[in-house]
Amino acid sequence: MSTFAEILLNGLSLGSVYALIALGFVVIFRATEVVNFAHASLLLAGGYITAVLHDDIGFWPALVAGIAGAALVGAAVEFVVIRRYRGSDHSVLAIVTIGVDILLTTELTRRIGTDVLTLGDPWGDAVVSVGPISLAQTRIAAFVTAALLITAFLLVFRYTSWGVAMRAAAESAETAALMGVRLGRVSLGAWAVAGGLAAVAALFLTVFPTPGLERATSLAALKAFPAAILGGLDSTTGALVGGLLVGVTESLATGYQSDLTFLGRGLGDLAPYLVMVAVLLIRPAGLFGTKELARV
Amino acid sequence: MGGSGLVVDDLSVGYGPVRALRRVSLHVPEGAVVTVLGANGAGKSTLLRAISRTLSFHGGAVVGGTVSLGGRRLDTLPPDRVVAAGVSQVPEGRQVFARMTVADNLAAGALGSPRSRRAAALHRVHELFPVLAERARQRAGLLSGGEQQMLAVARALMAAPAVLLLDEPSLGLAPLMAERIAETVKEINDQGTSVLLVEQNAALALRLAERAYVLEVGEVTLSGPAAELAASDEVRRRYLGVVDEDAAADAAEAGAGTRTLTRWQG
Q: Which of A167, B39, B72, B149 is deepest in the core (most CB within 10 A)?
C-alpha cells in the first residue's frame, strides 16, 4: 500500500511538471493557433542556461536567468520566425517550428555533448518520510512550485487585461483586433510565458532522481505533447488534467514494471502515448478541447 | 470635404486581383448618422474593414485613396491604433466572444482605450443596456440574438469611440428587436457619437440617417440627404421594395398603420 501511495505521489509530482510544459504549449496554441513542436528545445535552452550559470552566480539567480533566457528564446522565435509567417496556413507554421526545434536542439546537444549537467538545486537527494511513505524533497518541491505557478497563471489569465486580450484573440483574432488588441504583443507574450514555464519544468525534469540535464532531457519533455493533446489542445484545464494523467500513468507503469514484464521493458515511456491514443479514440477533441465545428 | 469627422476619399480596395471598392468617397460629419445601402456583395463590409484596417484578415488591401478622422490619416495605422484614434466597429454577425462572460466581453472592448475611461464607459453601456448588467456573469454564447447584438454594440462603445461603425446590426433579428437596436443607435448618436451604419434594411437605415450612400458593385452610385434618397424612385424600387406609384402610395399610407401582404407582382 505504501508503495502504491509513493508511486501515486511521485506520479502526481511528475504530472504537475508535465502540466507546466503542456500549459505553455496550450498558451501558444490558443494565442497563435500554432502547434509548437519547438517546445522541447525551449525547455532544453532554459535548463542549459541554469546549468551553465549556477556555479558562478548561485542556484536561484541562475534559475531566474534560465527562466528569462528561455522566455527570451521563445519571444525571439515568435519575433523572428512566426511573425513573418502570420496569416499563412497554421500547419505550415507548425512545420516551421519543427525546423526551429532541429536548429535549437542540435546546437544545444552539441554544447552539452555527452555530459550530464547538474542544475545545482538545493534539495539534492534528501528524502522526506511521513509514516511509511518516503518522498524525495525534489518531488515535493516540483509539485508545490508547479501548483503555485499554475494557480498564478490561471488567475492572471482570468482577471487581468492581458488574460482578457489573450482569450479574446484565441476566440477570434479579427474581432480581437477590432477591440484594439495588439495581436503581435499577445503572441509575443504567449511565447515568452511558455518559454519561462518550460525553463521551470526543465529544472524539475533534471533534479533527483534523474541524473541531470543531458541530451535525452528533450525526449522527456516530449511527454508533455500527449498530455496537451489528450487534454484538448486549446484547453488550459485540459493541460493540467492531461499532465497529471500522463505523469501518474508513467509512474504506475514504471513502478509496477516487474509485474508487467510480459509486456517487455520501457513501458513507462510508452504509457503516456497509449493513454493519449485511448482517450482520442473516445474523444477526438481531447478531454476538454473544443470540438471543431464545421458549417455546412 | 472638410477635415472634420470621418472622411473616406477616393478609396479603392482589392482582394488580390479582384477590385472590391472603386474610388469610393464618403463623409461622416461629427455627430451625424450616415448610412451605406447596398445589396450583398456591393462592398459594404469591405468599406468598414478598410476603415478599421482589418482587410488583411481577408487577404485584402487598400490600393488607393485615403481614410482620415478629423484630418488625421487612419489608412496607415494598425487596427489597434484606429481604435485608439476613436473609431470602433461592431462586426457583422455580432461576433461576441461566446466562451467569455458578458463582463469579460465588455472588458475586451475597453482594451484599446486608456484605463481611466473604463469606469465611465461601463456606466454608459449599462445605462443603455441594463440587461447586460444583469447578465454580467453569464457566458455571451448563451445570450439571445438580440442580447448578443446589444453586447456587440456595448463592447464597441467601451472604447468610447468618436465614430461607431455598425455592420448590419438588424441582421437576423426579430422586427421588434431590430426596432430596439434602431432606438439605441439614435440614443448613442444623441450622446454625441457619430455613426456609420451599413444596412440591408433600407427603411430602417434611411429613417435613422441624415445622409445616405448607395453602393453598387463597389461604387457609390447615389448619395444625398436620407430623406431625398428615401423619396427617389430608384431607391424606393431597389431597396424599399416599392414597385410602382400606387403601391408607393399604399405603402406610405400603411406606414403608420397595419400592413397587409399583397400578391407579389415581380
A: B149
